[in-house]
Amino acid sequence: MELQDVWKIYRMGEFDIPALQGIDLTIKKNEFVAITGPSGCGKSTMLNMIGCLDMPTRGKVFLEGKDISTFKSDELARIRGKKIGFIFQAFNLYPTLTALENIQLPMRIHEIPEKDVADTSKKLLDTVGLSDRKAHFPAQLSGGQQQRVSVARALSTSPSILLADEPTGNLDTKSGGEIMDVFKRLNNEGLTIVMITHDPRIAGYAGRIVKMLDGKIVGET
Question: Which CATH class for the 29-53+72-220 domain?
Answer without folding.
Answer: alpha beta
